[in-house]
Design brief:
Protein name: Type I site-specific restriction-modification system, R (Restriction) subunit and related helicases
Radius of gyration: 35 Å
Shape: elongated
Keywords: ATP-binding, Helicase, Hydrolase, Nucleotide-binding
Helix content: 40-55%
EC number: 3.1.21.3
Strand order of the largest sheet: 9-10-8-11-12-7-13
Enzyme class: hydrolase
Distance between the termini: 106 Å
CATH class of the largest domain: Alpha Beta
CATH architecture of the largest domain: 3-Layer(aba) Sandwich
Oligomer: single chain
Structural class: alpha/beta
GO molecular function: ATP binding; DNA binding; helicase activity; type I site-specific deoxyribonuclease activity
Number of domains: 6
Length: about 900
């Protein structure tokens, strides 16, 4: 019996003998044209010859045979074409396809490339605009038979979710048999597997794994029946080579900057031939797939799809400049998908200049064992910053940086925070990371749980530490080298401390991406309880000059950090049109938009004629975008083609002027400017104190006093405007506590009114203003009862109290006096009665008053509730409550 596939040489046709005729199951279906070694450059032209043979009549064969497959080959190069593809086109392949594959294609009702031209309409419900663009444009690219496509999406925009949606549609509608999802670290592979496991398509009630088999490869074999294979590029190489791979070799990224040696040569593997995968999706494709690893990709006859937030020139080149989606970090900030960042510089003498160790006994330490010894230094040892923490360890340098960070993180960088925000420190080596951890714990005066290492070489399970860092209060600080530098989500992360330099622009951008994730207030407060808003920014703490040693593609938006929002808006309204001013204003508006609530956004849009704050900022940034300016001018410039002529430059300048004027037009509205400034004040703690220059400048104290006076004046205006509008103010002004107790609801109404425009204040701000103004303050405020402190502030302003003290402290003092007077007149309270009275005191401290209904709630309910209180105090129980409501508050 003949084999499935047979090739016959020199078969005669009406236009001459073809080199080889391919038979599948006895039926002729394909041709091979073979050429000499040095004719590779002419194979494209040979394709015409092959087509001529295919259209000829074959000797001894029926006239209606269908020659579908065509190969042109030399001893080193093979090209292939399927004539059943619409707009068929030859492509280079690693080797000839197996006969079984040709048989499968012959039995298929259509080709995969034809099915790629007819995807059904995509339901965009629940998808971001950038995700929709990526999915739709990628399918368009497939339909045009483009072999490679690049999706560029900012960190946090949902690249993986987008890719899985594409995978689902390829499997369902294009009938793809197998798709490879390629990563470069085991960690990213595990994350991708989890994303596939949770994915639920919009047109099916089942989860992805219930529809298609997903397998993360962990051995040298690929399980049969797998529809989606998740693998590192290292493991896929080992599979093709038929070798086992230690999982430790998948833990770090095969970053091209660290790879040495020759390219990883790939040979034909009959178990996994080139046609094994139809599509390959390469996550984080900006690294690892070039040079030494590229042959792994070149081996497969598959469409290649790249995913990255930070493409570079090599990335664009590898994917044939076919960028199907481009969504930058700047656009993501505008859309609220990312948060913007600030940079805080800590520069020390040793970090910048190095130092010299004089000729004497010096302490040395083994890198791995950490064993110490003393040796005589025969000559002075000079070291620069390049040797620091590698060849020379200077504990004082690390300590100086950590101490400065400790002192500034909750005062300058994140003022008002009670705990250090989630912080990631990038170290140079594992040894350097250990030194940092020990000093962080010591300088902050905290235990082991406060600061931990997350590196591949850490003794403690890095996965569990990472999970805790992501979801729990501890650790507050994580120190890493590379493990979570890229591709790992810790959305609560707000501070990135660089104690190592980074030379790769893309790698640096990826590291910054760790801080750019957005997070709502409730989720942020779960791990950082003192956060008062959603995450609206991150801070880069540069201790080694990393921000100066390279330039990133991300535009620095706030170029005038010492200029207030009010001054920026006025500058633009008064004629400023320069890049720095307009761009800084755009950046400041984006920050404000990130913390405004829906009501504030709606009001701002009304005042701006329908444009949202984000839209205004977007237009300002677009006014300085070269592509947008050229489009406005009606000009097209191709990369590297030529410089603009003088006439074209004039058109570009005129176009930019038009764009700028259109962008800043809303700023001419005094009403809008005032509203935005008042909205800024309402969120002052988040957006006003984040400016390094403003916080540490020598003029800060004077500015602070002026600001305090302004706050107090605004507060007085608030009281005058609302004394007859708010119940709590009516009671305090009239001192009618006996007739009507102050309730927590009333106090919240005061807080809400105080925060709104045109006041834009909080109790914290007003209290702090009186502190700065020199008001007599009895005791420091505690975390308990802060909401009620507004009562104390109001009474102090009205002169009803001579000393400003927390409401809780006043209640406690008045409670002592009340108990003393009652004991003196009616006999001593019993110990159980005193326990109840103290609980009522604490309740009034946080709620303003107590009612009989409250006594059935916690903590009173656990002690017997209203019934037990009645037993203890008898028929006079309500008099006791009324008396305490008045005596402890009035």
């Amino acid at each position: 019996m003949a084999a499935c596939g047979v090739v016959v040489r020199e078969w005669q046709t009406t236009t001459g003998p073809c080199d080889y005729l391919i038979f599948i199951d006895g039926t002729p279906c394909g041709l091979i044209e073979a050429k000499e070694h040095d004719k590779g450059e002419k194979l494209t032209a040979v394709a015409e010859q092959t087509r001529r043979y295919a259209e000829s009549e074959f000797k001894y064969a029926p006239t209606d045979i269908d020659i579908r497959f065509a190969y042109e080959a030399t001893d080193v190069l093979t090209r292939f074409c399927d004539y059943h593809d619409k707009d068929y086109r030859s492509r280079e392949i690693f080797s000839f396809h197996r006969p079984e594959q040709l048989r499968a294609w012959l039995k298929d009702s259509d080709t995969i490339r034809n099915r790629l031209k007819s995807f059904p309409a995509f339901d965009t419900t629940g998808f971001r605009k950038c995700q929709v663009n990526a999915i739709v444009n990628l399918e368009k690219s497939f339909g045009e038979n483009r072999p490679r496509a690049l999706i560029q999406m900012a960190t946090g925009a949902g690249k993986t979710y987008t890719a899985i949606t594409n995978v689902y549609r390829l499997l369902k509608f294009a009938k793809a048999k197998r798709i490879l999802f390629l990563v470069d670290t085991k960690n990213l592979g595990e994350q991708a597997e989890e994303e596939f496991r949770k994915y639920k398509p919009t047109d099916d009630a089942r989860l992805f794994p219930e529809l298609y088999n997903v397998c993360r490869l962990t051995s040298s074999q690929i399980p049969n029946g797998s529809n989606v294979c998740i693998s590192t590029i290292q493991r896929m190489y080992s599979i093709l080579k038929g070798k086992e791979l230690d999982e430790a070799d998948e833990e770090s990224s095969p970053n091209e900057g660290r790879i040495v040696g020759e390219p990883r040569d790939v040979e034909y593997n009959s178990a996994y031939p080139p046609e094994y995968f139809d599509f390959i999706i390469i996550d984080e494709c900006h690294r690892s797939i070039y040079n030494v690893w590229q042959q792994v990709l070149d081996y497969f006859d598959a469409f290649l799809i790249g995913l990255t937030a930070t493409p570079d020139k090599r990335t664009y080149s590898f994917f044939n400049q076919n960028v199907v989606s481009e969504y930058t970090h700047e656009e993501a900030v505008i859309d609220g998908v990312n948060v913007g960042g600030d940079t805080y510089i800590i520069e020390t003498d040793v970090s910048k200049n190095g130092a010299t160790i004089t000729e004497r006994l010096v302490e040395k330490r083994d890198r791995l064992s950490r064993e110490k010894r003393w040796e005589q230094n025969d000559e002075d040892l000079e070291y620069d910053k390049g040797k620091l923490d590698r060849d020379v360890v200077n504990p004082s340098q690390i300590r100086t940086i950590i101490r400065e960070f400790r002192d500034k993180v909750t005062t300058v960088m994140f003022p008002g925070r009670k705990e250090i925000p989630k912080t990631l420190i990038f170290a140079k080596t594992d040894s350097h990371a250990d030194d940092i951890i020990n000093i962080v714990r010591e300088e902050f005066g905290r235990g082991n749980e406060f600061c931990k290492k997350i590196t591949y070489n850490a003794e403690e399970d890095p996965k569990s530490v990472l999970a805790a860092f992501r979801n729990e209060f501890y650790p507050r600080v994580a120190v890493t080298v590379d493990m979570i530098a890229t591709g790992t989500d810790v959305k609560a992360l707000e501070c990135l401390v660089f104690m190592r330099d980074v030379r790769s622009r893309n790698y640096f951008e990826q590291m910054l991406g760790r801080g750019r994730r957005t997070l709502g207030h409730d989720d942020l407060a779960r791990v950082s309880p003192s956060a008062t808003t959603n995450k609206c920014r991150y801070v880069v703490v540069d201790c080694v000059g990393v921000t100066k040693s390279l330039k990133t593609e991300t535009r620095q938006l706030d170029r005038k950090p010492s200029v207030s929002l009010k001054e920026l808006m006025m500058s633009v309204a008064m004629g400023a049109r320069d890049d720095d001013t307009v761009t800084s204003l755009a950046g400041r508006l984006l920050r404000l938009a990130a913390v405004m609530d829906n009501g504030e956004r709606k009001k701002a849009a009304e005042l701006a004629g329908g444009a949202s704050v984000n839209d205004i900022a977007r237009d300002m940034l677009d006014a300085f975008d070269e592509d947008r300016i050229a489009k406005e001018a009606g000009l097209i410039f191709r990369d590297g083609a030529r410089e603009a002529t003088e006439e074209e430059r004039a058109k570009l300048a005129d176009a930019q002027s038009r764009l700028v004027e259109k962008a800043i037009k809303p700023m001419f509205s005094a009403e809008l400017r005032n509203y935005l400034e008042n909205a800024r004040k309402a969120h002052d703690q988040v957006i006003d104190n984040e400016n390094l220059d403003a916080v540490i400048s020598s003029g800060w104290d004077t500015d602070r006093e002026d600001h305090a006076k302004e706050v107090i004046q605004t507060f007085r205006q608030f009281l005058a405007d609302n004394r007859d509008e708010l119940d709590a103010l009516q009671i305090i002004y009239g001192q009618t506590y006996k007739q009507r107790p102050i309730t927590l609801r009333m106090v919240k109404a005061v807080h809400d009114a105080l925060k709104t425009s045109p006041y834009g204040l909080s109790c914290d701000m007003v209290w702090h203003a009186y502190e700065v103004a020199g008001a007599p303050i009895a005791t420091a405020r505690s975390a308990v009862g802060k909401l009620m402190d507004i009562i104390s502030v109001i009474r102090f302003e009205l002169g009803q109290e001579k000393i400003l003290r927390p409401f809780e402290a006043g209640v406690a003092e008045r409670f002592k006096s009340w108990v003393f007077s009652k004991n003196a007149g009616h006999g001593q309270f019993t110990e159980e009665q005193m326990d109840w009275l103290r609980m009522i005191r604490d309740h009034i401290s946080t709620s303003g008053s107590v009612s009989s209904d409250d006594l059935d709630l916690s903590p009173f309910g656990e002690k017997g509730g209203l019934g037990r209180f009645y037993v203890l105090f008898g028929d006079k129980y309500q008099d006791v409550l009324d008396d305490m409501n008045y005596a402890l508050v009035a």
